[in-house]
Amino acid sequence: MDRLLVLVRHGQSDWNLKNLFTGWRDPDLTPKGIEEARTAGRRLKALGLSFDIAFTSALTRAQHTLSLILDEVGQPGLETIRDQALNERDYGDLSGLNKDDARARWGEEQVHVWRRSYDVPPPGGESLKDTGARVWPYYIHDILPRVMRGERVVVAAHGNSLRALIMAMEGLSGDEIVKRELDTGVPIVYRLAADTTIAEKNVLKD
Ligand SMILES: O=C(O)[C@@H](CO)OP(=O)(O)O
């Protein structure tokens, strides 16, 4: 049985381009982000992949990325489940601030801790651990059972919500996940074993 699970971070958003903390704010893709999403779809199609169900967050940039991917793989109307459990980590009071301005105000090290530590939340927001506490149960209850039934699943979500998911899927420690960065619009193709562990992983990059 092909237990296929594809994870993809949305293409470049307007606020990625402007270097703003985004979190639960809702900018759309830039023209570059649209192209990244289309390229992701073309790469999946080139491998002959298609899907039975799609998941995405409640945020436009992930939904738009997913719809461009589905267009490219020839499945524009595919059943899609949208859930805020897959939203980006909530950046709290940092949302909307420029990342360089934040470094100037609070210092390089503090901003790095807010962005990439495992369990230190930004003011008023979620740590990666907090994000995992909503992403992981959603994966276990809503996504994984479908994969294990043999449904081919694609998930379009966000840098930190996917990092939290990958940490659990790959059994990474807090120290390991803080060094892991996800490129925009680069699909990660997993095939799971019968015991839900990862049998195969393929990152679709140039
Ligand atoms: O601003 C955000 O929401 C995220 C993703 O773009 O940023 P960072 O990579 O700094 O966690």
TrEMBL record:
Keywords from the named record: Gluconeogenesis, Glycolysis, Isomerase
Alphabetical list of Pfam families matching this protein: His_Phos_1
Top-level EC class as recorded in UniProt: isomerase
Active site (catalytic residues): 10 (tele-phosphohistidine intermediate), 88 (proton donor/acceptor)
A biological process from GO: gluconeogenesis
Transmembrane annotation, as ranges: none
Reaction it catalyzes: (2R)-2-phosphoglycerate = (2R)-3-phosphoglycerate
Entry EC no(s): 5.4.2.11
Residues binding substrate: 9-16, 22-23, 61, 88-91, 99, 115-116, 159-160
SUPFAM superfamilies tied to this protein: Phosphoglycerate mutase-like
One GO MF term attached to the UniProt entry: phosphoglycerate mutase activity
Pathway: Carbohydrate degradation; glycolysis; pyruvate from D-glyceraldehyde 3-phosphate: step 3/5
Marked site: Transition state stabilizer: 158
Alphabetized InterPro entries for the sequence: His_Pase_superF_clade-1 (IPR013078), His_PPase_superfam (IPR029033), PG/BPGM_mutase_AS (IPR001345), Phosphogly_mut1 (IPR005952)
Job description of the protein: Catalyzes the interconversion of 2-phosphoglycerate and 3-phosphoglycerate.
HAMAP family registered for this protein in UniProt: PGAM_GpmA
Oligomer status and interactors: Homodimer.
Family listed: Belongs to the phosphoglycerate mutase family. BPG-dependent PGAM subfamily.
Protein name: 2,3-bisphosphoglycerate-dependent phosphoglycerate mutase
